Amino acid sequence: MKINLISDTVTKPSPGMLDAMMSAEVGDDVFKADPTVNRLEEKVAIMFNREAALYFPSGTMTNQTAIKLHTNPGDQLICDKYAHVYNYEGGGVSFNSGVSCKLIDGHLGMMTSDQVEEAINPPDFYHSPLTSLVCAENTTNKGGGACWNFSELLRIKEVCQKHGLAYHLDGARIWNALVEKGESAKQYGELFDTISVCLSKGLGCPVGSVLVGDKEMIDKALRIRKILGGGMRQAGFMAAAGIYALDNQINRLADDHKKAREIGSLLQSLLFIKKVEPLETNIIIFEINEDYLSVEDFIEKLLKKDIHIIGMGSSKLRMVTHMDYTDQMHETLLKTLKSL
Ligand SMILES: *Cc1c(COP(=O)(O)O)cnc(C)c1O
User: Fold this and answer.
1) 165 lines ligand 1 (CB under 6 A)
2) Which of 74, 86, 208 is nearest to 131 (CA)?
3) Most CB contacts within 10 A, which of 137, 150, 152, 290?
């Protein structure tokens, strides 16, 4: 039995999801004529109480499109040093938009409104890049699935309004935050100019992300998606998976969080674990105490049991729980960890 905890993107469509995909009504979405894609976009827009939404092949493309929408070449955006848009999008911020990042030394991928305000370049000081956008990420990926305190996001919004900056949310795992904190999509929709959400992480779809915003913004996003090569034809087969996931697979994220907490507290009790980072959702980041066991040995021992996890550089390791990680796998993992 392979136990794959390298990411929550390793899931395969559930039987219900496959049924929904196979019976999807489709058309050519480049002509906006795929009824299932249109239905998904409308559904996500309504969830976040926004005018419009646009379906994309990836979360990288939704983020990159949003950054392009809110900036001009030469501008600067503000984000945490852990941000996905800075670390894991292949330098797309500069490649696609000609924009630089002002990095904030935040906590678990989250900034304070004071830090954001300090990072803004004075707009009349023309020697510095013009600050035009703030990007937040919830939950934070490199920050171990941490959830923002909503009131801090609100204070950052006030800073953005005061200084005329756009405000984008990389909400690849927003669903995990909503479930864990009991928050609503609408309250996020109210706060941000644009939000990018992933259907292919915890929600278990094979592909897909959605960008939400006002109509004017999403109309412009359609052109940028085209330029980036993200126009798709009968994408309704995939969009049907998205609709199914939104209807059926959000609340179950609580189970991923519960399993992650159980793994975290077991790790905490083991002699060869130096540290488990604060754990709120489905991402467990921990450090091996190499006086007892090397990282390589640890990974090797797990691999012998067909358990797959991922290194994050230095002695840090990561496990991510997801819908294909069953109760039985969970039992096996806990037993294996105890036996090392
Ligand atoms: C996964 C992820 C994305 C998008 O990734 P894709 O693989 O391009 O879909 C964006 N932001 C965060 C925080 C992510 O974890």
Assistant:
1) no
2) 74
3) 137
CA distance 14 to 17: 5
* pLDDT, position 282: 98
From ligand 1's centre to the CA of 171, what distance in Å?
9
Q: For residue 36, say if its preceding peptide bond is cis, omega within 30 degrees of 0.
A: no
Instruction: Provide CB contacts within 8 A for 333, sequence distance 6+.
Output: 3, 5, 263, 307
Whether residue 142 has its Cβ less than 6 Å from ligand 1: no
Q: For residue range 266-295, what is the model confidence (pLDDT) as tens digits? A: 999 999 999 999 999 999 999 999 899 899
Assign residue 79 the CATH number of its domain.
3.40.640.10
pLDDT (0 to 100) of residue 62: 98
Strands (E), the chain: 3-4, 52-56, 76-80, 100-104, 131-137, 166-171, 194-198, 209-213, 273-276, 283-288, 307-308, 310-311, 316-320
Average pLDDT in the 92-109 region?
98
Q: Which residues contact 183 (CB under 8 A, 6 or more apart)?
A: 150, 177
Residue ending a domain, choose from 248, 270, 304: 248
Give the mutation target among 9, 81, 174, 198 for probing the ligand 1 site: most ligand atoms within 8 A of CB. 198
Q: How many domains does the chain have?
A: 2
Q: For residue 137, which atom of ligand 1 is closest to its CA?
A: 13
- Average pLDDT on 24-28 reads 98
Asked if 151 and 209 sit in the same domain, the reply is yes
Give the mean model confidence (pLDDT) for residues 112-131.
98
Tens digits of residue pLDDT in 126-172: 999 999 999 999 999 999 999 999 999 999 999 999 999 999 999 99
Q: Let me know: does 141 contact 83? Beta carbons within 8 Å.
A: no
Domain that holds residue 310: 3-9+252-339
- Shared domain for 231 and 271, answered yes or no, is no
Question: Would you state the structure tokens that stand for residue 166, as one six-digit string?
Answer: 């756009």
H-helix or E-strand spanning residue 154: helix 150-163
* Atom number of ligand 1 nearest to Cα 209: 9
Percent of the chain whose pLDDT exceeds 90: 97
The upper half-sphere exposure of residue 28, i.e. CA atoms within 13 Å in the direction of its Cβ, equals 2
Position 314 scores a pLDDT of 81
